[in-house]
Amino acid sequence: MTALKLAIQHKPFAREDGELNAIENIEIEIAANEFVAVLGPSGCGKTSMLQIAAGLDQEYTGAVEYAAGLEDRMAYVFQSPTLLPWRTVRQNIELVFSDPQTHADAIASVLEAVGLAGSEDIYPLQLSMGMQRRAALARAFVLRPRLLLMDEPFVSLDELLAARLRDLLKTMLAGNPASVLFVTHDWREALSLADRLIFLSPGPARITGELAVPLSPQQRSRPADLQNFRDANAKFFQSGKQ
Amino acid sequence: MASQRYNTFARISWMMTSVISLLVVWWGAALLVQSRYLPTPQDVFSVLAVEFSNGELLFHVSMTLMRVAASFLVAMVIGSAIGIVMGKRAWVDRLFDGWLMFFLNLPALVTIVLCFIWFGLTEVATVLAVAINKIPNVAVTLREGTKALDPAYEQLARAYRFGRWKTLRHVVLPQLAPYFAAAARSGLALVWKIVLVVELLGRSNGVGFQIHLYFQLFDVAAILAYAISFIVVVQLIETFILQPWQQTAARWRT
Ligand SMILES: Nc1ncnc2c1ncn2[C@@H]1O[C@H](COP(=O)(O)OP(=O)(O)OP(=O)(O)O)[C@@H](O)[C@H]1O
Ligand SMILES: [Mg+2]
User: Fold this and answer.
1) B160 lies in which domain range?
2) Burial of A191 (0-12, 13-18, 19+ CB in 10 A)
3) Which domain covers residue A135, as residue numbers?
4) Full-model pTM
5) Which of A16, A24, B47, B76 is the least crowded, having the fewest Cβ atoms under 10 Å away?
6) Does residue A197 sit in the same domain as residue A92?
7) What is the bridge-based pairing of β-strands A196-200 and A35-39?
8) ipTM of the complex in this document
9) Within 13 Å of residue B195, how many CA atoms lie on the same side as its CB?
């Protein structure tokens, strides 16, 4: 069953020096509970693609289709944490619910899981960048989303913390299966998480290749196995610059 | 914390020094000139005491305050609504930009006189005249605030299905708060000065009316007594309502 069907022919941006096309003929289908990672060089159009997938940007030619009910169970982890600075960490998370009182336990446990227990009543500007990212993750996870859009969610975190949060993402998905569209430019991260990789060209983004990742959970956690897999599929990783 | 307390203390001390130096200069000038048209602070204070004890002062100050409050409220509500819509919709902005220019440059006196001619010497005309003078300023300030709204937060609200009310309350209004505060503070200062003029021209009570009365009697001490008592009232509102509100609204800033 298809969860999300993305078909974008053009994504124009008006700029002083004329019109810029960020996306050129991208078609992506994500199966229910499939994890798709999109790899592409900086500035190629990954964020633009996610915003269209989320329904936040209507100015494009093409179409986005969701499986029934999926649109209202969507969570989006933005490229920057995007927490409301005038609301505390807890309030930021409560805001995604229309009835936060009934989800108090879920909120407490997600904050515990991302390691923010004790920081609930702090304003985001007082948090480190890593903590802000974790709060943004908590906000997405707490919804138990069925469609999860993630825009380089672990970038600029130290590797230890990034690995821990990747494990948290896996745990969250094990308990709460979801279709994931995950943008990154870190091939190791993509291989350790995704069922399938999609490679994009430099802007305007086109799909240059698709690759299934049939690795076991054990292989995914071993750097050597990831390297071997990459070497065996070297031609995919060479297009563009990852 | 300690430095903050010191700052408050230093600020109050400097404020006192500043006010006292003004009083001293005034007193010196009054003693030097020795004219009934430049009374000493002491003369003014005794008028103040008399007017206070016979209830006149309280009555006229509260009449004026009510007019200030009503026009201030009307101007803030209408001005904000206009400003926000102009900030959001480019065509509304272009269409009404000329209107704003016109009303911004329209002398307060003209608005007041026209309102009295069109709507009679009534309380409604008074409030309207004052509000019309203030609305363009509020609109310009809130238009600027609306244009500065961060699109990233709007995307957040849409991605997580906040809906209209939650978006307004948690996303839009907190971003506009500094602009509301700026409009409110400059508004209060402007509104009360215009209210006095309106009272002088077309009301039979209020501080403006009293000043007009004592102007005809050339009673400078009484004029100053009323002016000073109103300055004090406005300063109290500023210190104990507007400033604390602005500080609580900004407590999330590091
Ligand atoms: N609001 C905008 N106005 C004009 N041009 C834009 C806008 N947003 C993005 N672009 C342009 O569109 C192209 C794609 O941008 P996008 O943010 O989608 O790239 P990206 O792949 O997410 O990059 P990064 O890896 O650096 O996050 C870039 O050339 C960018 O300059
Ligand atoms: Mg991006």
Assistant:
1) 40-249
2) buried
3) 86-145
4) 0.84
5) A16
6) no
7) parallel
8) 0.91
9) 31
